[in-house]
Design brief:
This protein is α+β, with helices and mostly antiparallel strands and 92 residues long.
């Protein structure tokens, strides 16, 4: 029973990685605004929002005109079969 519970925790657990892009403006502050665009990717083939998870969409969602920093956050569940991909931007 304990082995089954441990296996469930390991396989159904989520891990997150943050890949922070370099600042787009040299020595610029991160900025007061933040915007995100998120999609779910299934089996590495299908995306819940297609190509709408990009820097432009994240900036529009946050009301940002000048992007200074970009982050990509991937949360993988069940050995990467399901991935929540978030593009986060900061700026003015």
């Amino acid at each position: 029973m304990a082995a089954s519970a441990a296996l469930a925790v390991l396989t159904l657990g989520s891990c997150a990685t943050i890949n922070s892009g370099a600042a787009l403006a040299e020595k610029a502050p991160i900025g007061p605004k933040m915007g995100e665009a998120t999609s779910n990717i299934i089996l590495g083939l299908f995306s819940s929002k297609g190509e709408q998870n990009n820097i432009k969409q994240a900036a529009e969602n946050g009301g940002i005109k000048k992007v200074t920093q970009v982050e990509y956050i991937d949360q993988s569940v069940f050995f990467g079969l399901f991935i929540k991909h978030t593009t986060r931007v900061y700026g003015e």
